[in-house]
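Q: Sequence in, structure out?
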Amino acid sequence: METCIDSLDDWLRKYRLKMNPAKTDLMWFSSSRNQNNLLNHDLHLKDANIPASTQLRNLGVIFDSKLSFTAHVSTTARSCFIILRRLREIREFLPTSEFASLVTCFVMPKVDYCNSLLYGLPDYLVEPPAVGAEACLWCWTS
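A: Exactly. Output:
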């Protein structure tokens, strides 16, 4: 692994780039059977020691070491319901079409963002964003 890191560092230096250990994260992906063996291994990058994490955020998606996406789904559902609660306070002051536009602008992008990563996950995980989408429909009609 360190040989690979050294060759990557050489390539970066060739193109006048630099690896930043302060912004580098490490996560091991494995089956649950091998998970305990991998979490104890850290990455030694030049003079820095980078510990392995169990969760990382990349481009707004929370990855966990088992790729179960439970943290990502719960965070997405929570943020959708917070927005819906705030929008519900102004519901009576807006026509239905404008309120539907607000919900479409603020909530649906959160439900739709990177939802292809959730393909193939069990129903109990995919359900909260679906409930968020159903709540959007409920806000439009009630």
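The helical segments are 2-14, 35-38, 70-89, 96-106, 108-112, 123-141.
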